[in-house]
TrEMBL record:
It comes from the Bacteria. Gene3D superfamilies: GntR ligand-binding domain-like (1.20.120.530). Signal peptide: none annotated. Keywords: DNA-binding, Transcription, Transcription regulation. InterPro entries: GntR_C (IPR011711), TF_FadR/GntR_C (IPR008920). This is GntR C-terminal domain-containing protein. GO terms for molecular function: DNA binding.
Amino acid sequence: MNSASRPRNAAKGLVDARRTEEDVAALEAAFERMAATSADPVAHTEADVVFHLLLLAASHNELLECLEVMIAAALSARYRLVHATGERPGFAATHRAVLDAVRAGDPDTAEAAMRDLLAQAELDQSSL
């Protein structure tokens, strides 16, 4: 489980032959919904959770997909706190970087983008 959730392994799963054009299109739509709902903490939280669940689904990793319900609950609880104070600096850019790397099929860039996203999440949480 631990190695399946590491950014390198997640990035590899997302950008290798497993992710489809449909996965990328769904991620694009989810990202656009996040951008469109940034002023509404409830809708923004839902959109953020959907984006991350679509990342899991795009990996086509059965183990991660089995954990979807648990992960969704944890993300939802965390994001309700984070998004209650408005959009965080760097939020859109870190998510866009992950999406762009997945679309480009670049595992090294995807790994770096995911690490940046996790680092931003830690900063957001520590400021609560």
